[in-house]
Amino acid sequence: MSGPQARVPATIQFTKGHGTQNDFVLIADEDAELDLTPAFVRALTNRRAGIGGDGVIRVVPSAAVEEGRALLAEDPDATWFMDYRNADGSFAEMCGNGVRVFAAFLERFGLADLSAGGIAVGTRAGVRRVRREPNGWYAADLGVWSLPGGAGAASEGADAEVTVTGLPVARAALRVDIGNPHTVVALADEAELVAADLRTAPAVLPAPPSGTNVELVVPLGEREVEGRPMGRLRMRVFERGVGETRSCGTGACAAALAVRAWAGALAPEVWSVDVPGGQLRVSARPDGHVELAGPAVLLASGVVDVAALLG
Amino acid sequence: MSGPQARVPATIQFTKGHGTQNDFVLIADEDAELDLTPAFVRALTNRRAGIGGDGVIRVVPSAAVEEGRALLAEDPDATWFMDYRNADGSFAEMCGNGVRVFAAFLERFGLADLSAGGIAVGTRAGVRRVRREPNGWYAADLGVWSLPGGAGAASEGADAEVTVTGLPVARAALRVDIGNPHTVVALADEAELVAADLRTAPAVLPAPPSGTNVELVVPLGEREVEGRPMGRLRMRVFERGVGETRSCGTGACAAALAVRAWAGALAPEVWSVDVPGGQLRVSARPDGHVELAGPAVLLASGVVDVAALLG
Predict the structure, then answer these.
(1) In this complex, do A308 and B301 lie within 8 Å of one another by their Cβ atoms?
(2) Domains of chain A and any CATH numbers
(3) Alpha-carbon distance A16 to A125, whole Å?
(4) Looking at the DSSP assignment, which residues form a beta bridge with residue A182?
(5) Torsion of CA B126, B132, B138, B140, to 10 degrees
(6) Closest residue to B302, CB basis, from A21, A47, A302
(7) Which of A94, A23, A47, A58 is nearest to A295 (CA)?
(8) Cβ density class A100-131: b for 16+ within 10 Å, e for less
(9) Do B302 and A297 touch (CB under 8 A)?
């Protein structure tokens, strides 16, 4: 027991939060005392014997961790660092749903003031800005995006081929990079979206060397919202190394950006994206960044008994 | 929102517990004020947008609810009633893992004293006695069991036939009643146990009118434990209306009692049962009752924000 319990106290305060049902166990570690071992992260995220979550988010002062200090040099406003761990205990660079929940947590517990123009958050992918919108949603700048296939892929609309269990024939697909790799497939209609069997990973050609997330999308047209055109799409996502999930923030961005590329020069810059876990909004900003907006819910807080958790 | 929130306060204290990874959200309702609507139960048990659990256990004084008052007339010691709800919001009569966690909860929060001979618990299946063992496990008397097929089924060892996806040919099976219906299938070895695909319900003939839980078991022999023979088996379970689960208390009982019937007159009365979520012990008592023993873990307590939960 000494391994996973090393530097873990007898009880730990936690908060459970989610963004479009991408859910997290948040732990404030203001004194940077907590050693989040992979075994401890797996115990916390276990959905039956633990709290349950897609990941653990440790909220730690940037000045207290090496990765954070480097970011402070770049942006002194990034006083809090998002130490994100996947449910399997591995490190993750970023999580588009998680960074919104992180900001909501800072606000709820009085660690940051989002009333004036948003905040800077330190992450392993660099500094990310998050602001709160009047409707209570949080909007996060997820940085620069790109089409790995370049202008050729953009004009052809495809640079990959994906085979999905449950759907006939291989489909043309477009690769999108949001700091992590995505491959987006347009389906004919919502019936195909339902018919797709994502219990097994879609087969992608050419096979990406370090894998790819795969988004299945159905464009649902455009409409005018507050004087601006807004596109709409519905999607499902297969996350690399995880399986199908209820939501993936960068996946929603990739899906919107691919559909926007397919729609051509006059395509909307703002997209409403229906994921199984709710609704997100993706904006392609003029500066080449992509912004993800959506809800961030903090639903419960409490205390974990570490000995009971680790059995 | 008025429906699910009716008579639900702004915040609710909860505890998350599990028995061999059959997990529950426990709520103490000492003044019997809480109206557990199906929608609220579904929100609480949602594993991503809620706390998550196989069910909700409301801990309420027997005297405060009609079902409980009838039990008090039968056994005045049954002062607490286990109001168990399945994750879908429906009522359940009993839960063999849940009643142990219920007892651990009473003890933890000073609502009952288990140091002297155990306690009586009111449940929809009647009064159940639970005691704490020296090793920290809890043992619950689950009442009278029977073989619906009677002596004929016992001597033949089978009164049903089960077809399991992933396994060749239909298998002979024995029906066992533990207050709820079970059908137990012996497999040849652990390789078959692994090969069984329980993503779909096994087909049972004759088809039971109100369905059945199905247990796949591999007997693992006997050994001497503290001077008494103890049988051992490994199992997986498909729960009626739910799917495969990590553990099912009455399912473990049914599995042990079926293997005991197959083993004949000299079979052990006590069985160690390995379920995917851990280990249980089942005893066939001389009085015709079956007793289920195993761990009961209370791993976290906290406060749910009801408005955030109900979105």
Answers:
(1) no
(2) 11-137+296-310 (3.10.310.10), 145-287 (3.10.310.10)
(3) 23
(4) A176, A213
(5) -20
(6) A302
(7) A23
(8) bbbbbbbbbbebbeeeeebbbbbbbbbbbbbb
(9) no
Query: CA A121, CA A106: separation in Å to the nearest integer?
Result: 10
Evaluate whether ipTM surpasses 0.95: no
Omega prior to A206 cis, within 30 of 0:
yes
* Contact residues on chain B for A308, CB-CB shorter than 8 A: 297-299
Residue A271: strand pairing partners: A231, A282
Does B301 sit within 8 Å of A303, measured CB to CB?
Answer: yes
Nearest to A49 among B18, B50, B308 (CB): B18
Virtual torsion, Cα B110, B116, B118, B121, nearest 10 deg: -50
**Predicted model pTM:** 0.92
Positions of A marked active-site:
95, 248
Cα–Cα distance measured from residue B139 to residue B137, given in angstroms and rounded to the nearest whole number: 7
Tens of pLDDT, residues A136-194: 999 999 999 999 999 899 899 999 999 999 999 999 999 999 989 999 999 999 999 99
Chain centre distance of CA B170: 27
**Contact of B38 with B92, CB cutoff 8 Å:** no
Chain mean position to CA A257? 15
